[in-house]
């Protein structure tokens, strides 16, 4: 069972889940049969999420079910069918919109994204789009305002029921043909669905090229403003400045000022030079006090021979001399440069302070008398330090002498013990074995 929706941007074919959602499918089919959805606006388009329609008022707050036509206002909405549970997994899923009380009327939505789990259990799925996915994509990419309403109307022109298994209830009035739309129905305050949007309609080729050039220039100006090369995209160059090029490298500022001053007083005349070598770049800017003098110089001096070179004169397009105040208009570019210089100075001072060793507060300001006192205290502390060193060296010498005396005493004792041992060996030959056994240990101990 399927329904064909003919929209202003193409056709959509919706297959219905008759067995799973019989009540929702019956409501949708019978509303299509009485031409309820004819000329309904698609009033909500959220890219890669949903598109919503089914409200004859086009506001998203109207609509009623087919049962309201049969049983009155008390049956304006019907209860949602939650079993079996069908999820919003794929694009093109069609669901009845919940009115906030788990009830449905005439509004329905079509998903334009995948795996929209947060719609499950809230809006009742009753079908899916099987044909016209390119049309669905086109609707999804339409331009909308901040409330997701399309700038140009997208409407359901007509509905065609391909198969209807439900019998028509008694009392349901079915029109023989599609009714004509009323003026109020078509007047949405937006661009009409059948209106062609053509900015170049009725204009010549030259006018079209001029409009396109202006758009490109505007785009480039916005990019330069974003980069920071222009203070404002809408800024205009001064009209009292001439740009002179193809100059001879020998031509100086004074030469040009003398030549162009016959048209009127000049504020400034500058030949642009290389910042490294100082050589002329063969172009200059001349600023007049009056715009009229600048215009006369433009018409008279173009292609004039100066220093064996034919110069070219045009109005300047540079805004380098204009004070840069930005969007807010509070600060100039010079103000920012001064701020950066001050910031650099502060950073250098802080670095120097970090390098300095830590000192007490009493050394922040030192007078001449204090310098002499500091020197005297320094000399006094140096003498004390030398005395301490001298005492320390005397102690070390005493330790060395005591160690030497002890060492000499030990050496004397060892020599005496050796002599006694030699004397014992000489007498040992005359001793018998028994006496030697008794005296030998005593001699050994005395030697040690």
Please provide a brief summary of the model.
The protein is an alpha+beta fold and 448 residues long.
Q: What topology does this entry show?
A:
Elements: E1 2-7, E2 10-16, H1 22-33, E3 40-41, E4 44-46, E5 50-53, H2 66-71, E6 78-79, E7 93-98, E8 103-111, E9 124-131, H3 133-140, E10 155-161, H4 183-186, H5 205-227, E11 241-245, H6 253-260, E12 266-273, E13 280-288, H7 291-301, E14 305-306, E15 309-310, E16 312-315, H8 333-355, H9 368-428, H10 433-447
Antiparallel strand pairs: 1-2, 1-10, 2-9, 3-10, 4-5, 5-8, 6-8, 7-8, 7-9, 11-13, 11-16, 12-13, 14-15
Helix pairs in contact: 9-10
**What can be said about the biggest beta sheet?**
10 strands, antiparallel
The total of helices stands at 10
What is the arithmetic mean of pLDDT?
81
Strand content: 15-25%
Which oligomeric state applies? Answer: single chain
Helix content: 25-40%
> How widely separated are the two ends?
125 Å
Shape: flat
Alpha-beta classification: alpha+beta
Q: Regions with pLDDT < 50 over 5+ consecutive residues?
A: 326-330, 356-368, 386-390, 426-448
Could you give the count of β-strands? 16
| Backbone CA Rg | 52 Å
Element order: H for helix, E for strand? EEHEEEHEEEEHEHHEHEEHEEEHHH
């Amino acid at each position: 069972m399927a329904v064909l929706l003919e929209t202003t941007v193409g056709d959509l074919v919706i297959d219905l889940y008759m067995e799973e959602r019989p009540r929702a499918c019956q409501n949708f089919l019978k509303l299509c049969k009485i031409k309820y959805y004819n000329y309904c606006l698609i009033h909500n388009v959220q890219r890669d999420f949903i598109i919503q329609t089914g409200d004859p008022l086009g506001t998203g707050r109207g609509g009623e079910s087919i049962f309201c036509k049969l049983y009155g206002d008390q049956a304006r909405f019907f209860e949602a069918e939650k079993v079996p549970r069908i999820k919003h997994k794929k694009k093109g899923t069609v669901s009845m919109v919940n009115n906030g009380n788990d009830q449905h009327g005439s509004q329905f939505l079509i998903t334009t994204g995948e795996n929209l789990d947060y719609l499950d259990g809230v809006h009742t799925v009753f079908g899916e789009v099987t044909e016209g996915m390119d049309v669905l994509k086109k609707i999804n990419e339409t331009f909308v305002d901040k409330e997701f309403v399309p700038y140009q109307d997208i409407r359901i022109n007509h509905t065609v029921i391909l198969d209807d298994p439900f019998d028509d209830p008694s009392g349901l009035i079915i029109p023989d043909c599609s009714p004509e739309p009323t003026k109020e129905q078509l007047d949405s305050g937006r661009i009409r669905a059948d209106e062609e949007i053509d900015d170049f309609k009725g204009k010549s080729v030259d006018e079209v090229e001029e409009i396109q050039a202006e758009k490109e220039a505007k785009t480039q100006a916005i990019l330069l403003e974003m980069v920071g090369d222009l203070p404002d995209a809408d800024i205009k160059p001064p009209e009292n400045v001439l740009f002179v090029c193809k100059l001879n490298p020998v031509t100086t500022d004074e030469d040009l000022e003398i030549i162009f001053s016959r048209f009127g007083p000049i504020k400034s005349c500058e030949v642009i030079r290389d910042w490294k070598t100082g050589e002329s770049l063969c172009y200059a800017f001349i600023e007049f006090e009056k715009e009229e003098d600048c215009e006369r110089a433009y018409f008279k001096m173009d292609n004039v021979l100066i220093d064996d070179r034919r110069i070219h004169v045009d109005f300047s397009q540079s805004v380098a001399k204009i004070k840069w105040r930005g969007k807010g208009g509070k600060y100039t570019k010079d103000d920012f440069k001064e701020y950066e210089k001050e910031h650099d100075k502060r950073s250098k001072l802080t670095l120097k302070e970090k390098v300095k060793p830590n000192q007490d507060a009493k050394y922040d300001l030192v007078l001449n008398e204090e310098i002499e006192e500091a020197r005297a205290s320094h000399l006094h502390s140096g003498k004390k330090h030398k005395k301490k060193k001298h005492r320390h060296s005397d102690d070390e010498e005493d330790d060395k002498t005591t160690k030497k005396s002890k060492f000499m005493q030990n050496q004397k004792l060892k020599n005496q013990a050796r002599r006694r041992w030699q004397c014992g060996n000489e007498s040992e030959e005359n001793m018998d074995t028994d006496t030697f056994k008794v005296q030998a240990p005593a001699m050994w101990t005395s030697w040690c």
